[in-house]
Design goal:
Helix content is about 20%, strand content about 20%. It is of the alpha+beta class. The chain folds into two domains: about 40 residues, no CATH class; about 80 residues, no CATH class. A three-stranded antiparallel beta sheet has the order 3-5-4, with no helix packed on it. A hairpin with a 7-residue loop joins strand 1 and strand 2. The longest helix has 10 residues.
């Protein structure tokens, strides 16, 4: 049960920790109480709902692209089809996750062909890449519930405006 009044004031936040004997006339309910100013999210203490982003972090970090399928990821050390030359292959982008930073980079890259408007343009421009994606990504996307993923099966689930 929540009871409140407009404005800022101190209150008591009781949180149920344990309930036993609920089907008896004398149930045992253990509460944890906190006293202080109650926040809109029903917490006591610092109001984290007022937190804002740090301006100094703008453009420094990104969630990165959401690939949606493993077929976009290739290991350029073991895959003879794709040499890791960015000058010759602008669609091949280095994939770096936390493990690559804290340990060693695993020479993984992603195939980023989002600029191709349709699969025919992709097939004409990059037939080997098209074939790889058709075999690894298309089978999963063809039956996906999301019509956009079915229609544009050669693109990442979300690009998240990441620039490599």
């Amino acid at each position: 049960m929540t009871v409140g009044e407009a404005g800022k004031s101190s209150g008591i936040l009781n949180e149920v920790i344990r309930e036993t004997k609920l089907d008896t006339d004398e149930p045992l309910i253990t509460l944890k109480s906190a006293v202080g100013e109650l926040n809109p999210d029903l917490t006591v203490g610092v109001d984290v709902t007022l937190a804002t982003g740090i301006l100094a972090n703008a453009g420094v970090a990104s969630m990165g692209p959401a690939l949606g399928e493993r077929g976009f990821v290739i290991d350029t050390t073991n895959d003879g089809l794709f040499a890791p030359s960015r000058e010759k292959q602008p669609w091949l982008r280095r994939l770096t996750i936390g493990k690559d930073i804290t340990e060693h980079h695993r020479n993984r890259h992603v195939i980023d062909v989002r600029e191709y408007p349709d699969e025919n343009a992709l097939r004409d421009a990059l037939p080997k890449v098209y074939q790889h994606l058709k075999q690894t990504v298309y089978p999963l996307r063809a039956t996906n519930n999301d019509p956009k993923l079915r229609e544009f099966w050669w693109r990442f689930r979300r690009s998240n405006d990441i620039y490599f």
